[in-house]
Design goal:
Elements (H helix, E strand, L loop, with lengths): L32 H11 L4 H5 L3 H10 L6 H16 L2 H5 L18 E7 L1 E2 L2 E2 L7 E7 L5 E5 L4 H11 L1 H11 L14 E10 L8 E2 L10 E2 L6 E9 L3 H6 L3 E10 L4 E7 L3 E2 L6 E5 L8 E11 L5 E12 L1
Parallel strand pairs: 8-15
Antiparallel strand pairs: 1-4, 2-3, 4-5, 6-7, 6-9, 9-13, 10-11, 10-12, 10-14, 14-15
Amino acid sequence: MPSDSKRERTAGESRSGSKAPRDDFKAIEGLGEAFEQWLQENFQVRTYADLGALSAQKIRSRAKQAGIAPSLAEIERILAQARLLAEAAPSAEAASPPAEEGEEKDWKEFASFMVYFERKLDGEREEKRTTVERRTGVHHMETGEQESWPGIEAGQACEWMLERLGEKAEREAALSETTVAPPGLEVSEPVELKIQGVQLRQPPDGGMPHDLLLGEQAYSGLVRAGVPLSLTVTLRFVGPGAPSLAEMRREFNVFVDAEEMTTASRVRIGASPFYRLKQGQLSYAITLSPTTFSSGLYRLRIGGIVREPQPFWSYVEVPMLQVS
């Protein structure tokens, strides 16, 4: 049966038939020695380019037959790193002409991320649902860290990458000294989004409201696992430029993320639709759709985002929420 691709040509040989040099696959995060040897034996990979040209689905299918079970996402991340390393090979650099005097200097990469989007599968088939479950993931190539969020998510992914670059800390330090002026407003008219309160009701339609924002102090009340609750976020736009921002009818929403403190896993538990600011109204109370928690200790991040053309946001944290 003929091979279906140039991807699976005898990768240990160049087009001329001569042996290609071996690359050091230790540079690829997540690729252990055993899996590397299996790839060499089954796909004859010798170089980053050989590995990057392979099909993740074909590797996954053959690996399952062999009793090896890396996930499709893990394989995709390995292949993505191989492609990046292949592109950065010395031969490619040698082909680039030197910069002329007065020409802009070359850019040197100091960090790289892979953003990927996944659909939930049942076995090898997409689940038959009215709404297909999807998630967004980011992999930090230099450290091997990765994170994912439900749905197609841009804001949280960008924020996570900024944290890895140290940019987020610098940005927050700047925000502590001054407020942010959205586009279209003069610097003399700063405006800031402040989260003023977060109230929890359990059950949503009859529970007594409990304020979760207690400064650095942890909320001492107990939340019942598996029982629906609602969160209401109160926010206000402040600063001399706030009335002008309302006149521009900019859009905003609020979100709540939860981190399970024993596993450090994070998930978005709620997000509102985008609302348009009303002229003359600077304070809003947004109630998110009811949700439930499993037993555990959680840290909550509650934030608000003002939409394009140039987004800006603010958030607060509830240091601990006990669910039992």
